[in-house]
Design a protein that fits this description.
Number of helices: 5
Number of strands: 6
Helix content: 40-55%
Oligomer: single chain
Number of domains: 1
Strand order of the largest sheet: 1-2-6-3
Strand content: 15-25%
Distance between the termini: 24 Å
Structural class: alpha+beta
Amino acid sequence: MFRETTPIKVYIFKDASYVSSVELFQIIFPYSNNYYAQWVRMNITKQPQELSCKGVDYIFFADAGIKPPQRIKGGKKRMDYLLTVVFAIQLCYQAKNFQSKNVKDFLLKLI
C-alpha cells in the first residue's frame, strides 16, 4: 500500500537528495522482493554509462558515510544504493505502474 504522507525516506548528502534503492524497489514492486538483485543489475549497475553513472546517479551508502538500514533477506544482506532523486524518477517512468506514478509525483515535488 502506498503511504501518501511520506512514501519514501529522502537522504541528504552534499546538498543533494537521495533515496534508497531497496525502498524504491519495495514500493514500486511490492510483491516481487525476490527480483531485487536482478532489478539492480538491469536498471542501475549494468546500464550503459549514458543512462546511469556511479558517483553521479547513484552511490553506495558507505561512500556517503551513512550507515545503511539493516535489510536481510533470507540470511543474505542486500546491496543498497543511494539513488539521486532525478535518477529515481527515471526508474519510476520505466516501471509504468500505479505505485511508481505515486512515488514519481512525490519525488517531482522535491525538485
